[in-house]
Specification:
The complex is a heterodimer of chains A (279) and B (102). Chain A has 279 residues and is α/β, with parallel strands linked by helices. Chain A has seven helices and six strands; from the N terminus they run ααβαβαβαββαβα. Chain A has a single domain, classed as Pyruvate Kinase, Chain: A, domain 1, CATH 3.40.1380.10. A five-stranded mixed beta sheet of chain A has the order 3-2-1-4-5. Classes of the chains: A alpha/beta (279), B mainly beta (102). The interface between A and B is medium-sized, with 27 and 22 residues. β6 of chain A pairs parallel with β6 of chain B, so a sheet runs across the interface.
Chain lengths: 279, 102
């Protein structure tokens, strides 16, 4: 049997782990609330932009899915993963689902988040481009990612979606569908904006192109925020489970400690009784 | 985006009317995650591909991409400066909406 002093040390260590997991749990829940606010703000921004875009009387379904501007004939898969560990096994699931649909000859892979790049490298899969996961605590700048994606004919994003605090799931979404989903419930603007009534600089086409790129950027930002939300929720759950496990372990160790303590005191008592009998 | 010369949002602090009674327009400057200014102003200045421009009361309908540089809002009693990387401005009916840093 182990000594009571050694068990006592272990109990203290488990206590520290318990405190740490509780702190991580708290941080995760705070960040979840913060990201939810950001999602709401960007939806408002998108709504106003969409209203103006719809007043330009272009056909968004045709324009947004027009692959003519793409330089590459291939499509692209984007894996949105975390930048590190502590998020459970969700990145593994994202990579697994992406690879199950991956055709090397027709598709490139772009990874957002260091963990996904590592997982793909371990499987010997080549990545066309890697981006660090943008810091969601700062204003999101997805321009470099959007510029890279604009080169492809089709864009499918694989990411972890937040369903609830207890449930997160891997989803695949087409970036154009994401823009269409965001605009689905929005009423189009009533007035018409045209070259007859407005002065456009540099030109109507360039303004429209830019607005579409902005909307794709917002759709991607929403996906990144959703993914980050799910990562925090996943971390929250992982930390809750770790805390529960630490509590159980602390309980077991306390029992062991008491047993060891009793055994040590019995042993001492036996030694005293023996020495008295011998004396 | 960096801001100098005053408060960030006109939403929280309503703009006082200009002493000279200058005609104003309504201005809203925001990004996907932040509202920078919302309220009345005497003028809005910015930069596009053609060069610097000013929007005053009764400006013609105008739709432009904005270049990197300062957007200056003259509220009549203070000048708020916003440093942007890119954006869009739409002006119609004495209302200027700026979608910035997107």
């Amino acid at each position: 049997m182990r000594r009571a002093l050694a068990i006592q040390k272990e109990v203290a260590q488990v206590g520290t782990i318990k405190d740490l997991t509780a702190a991580f749990e708290g941080i995760a829940s705070l960040r979840i609330a913060k990201i939810k606010n950001k999602v709401a703000a960007s939806q408002q921004f998108f709504a106003e932009l969409w209203q103006i875009y719809s007043q330009l009387r272009v056909d968004p379904n045709r324009r947004l899915s027009d692959p003519k501007r793409a330089k590459k004939l291939k499509g692209v898969f984007i894996a949105v993963t975390s930048d590190g560990g502590l998020s459970g096994d969700i990145d593994e699931k994202i990579v697994k689902q992406l690879l199950s649909q991956y055709d090397q000859s027709a598709t490139d892979i772009v990874v957002i988040g260091a963990h996904g790049a590592t997982l793909l490298a371990q499987r010997g899969v080549a990545v066309a481009k890697y981006f660090k996961l943008p810091d969601t605590d700062k204003p999101l700048d997805v321009t470099p990612i959007i510029n890279c994606l604009d080169e492809y004919r089709q864009t499918a994003v694989f990411y972890e979606s937040y369903v609830s605090l207890a449930t997160q799931e891997v989803r695949r979404i087409d970036l154009i569908s994401a823009v269409q989903t965001l605009s689905a419930d929005l009423a189009p603007g009533q007035a018409v904006i045209s070259g007859r009534d407005y002065l456009f600089e540099p030109s109507l086409d360039e303004v429209i192109d830019y607005m579409e790129s902005v909307m794709r950027g917002i759709a991607l930002s929403q996906v990144l925020l959703d993914s980050k939300l799910a990562q925090y929720a996943s971390r929250f759950n992982a930390m809750s489970m770790a805390e529960t496990r630490a509590n159980e372990l602390a309980g077991d160790l306390r029992l062991d400690y008491n047993r060891a303590k009793r055994a040590e005191s019995d042993k001492r008592l036996k030694e005293v009784v023996n020495s008295l009998e011998m004396g | 985006m960096t801001v100098t010369g005053g408060s960030l949002t006109g939403k929280d602090k309503p703009v006082k009317p200009a002493s000279g009674g200058q005609a104003k327009l309504t201005v809203k400057i925001f990004s996907p995650f932040q509202l920078f200014y919302q309220g009345e102003a005497v003028s809005v200045s910015g930069v596009n591909k053609t060069g610097p421009f000013d929007i005053l009361h009764d400006h013609a309908n105008f739709f432009s991409l904005m270049s990197a540089g300062d957007v200056v809002v003259d509220t009549g009693f203070q000048r708020l400066k916003f440093d942007i990387n890119h954006g869009i401005i739409k002006v119609s009916g004495n209302r200027a909406t700026l979608f910035v840093d997107v």
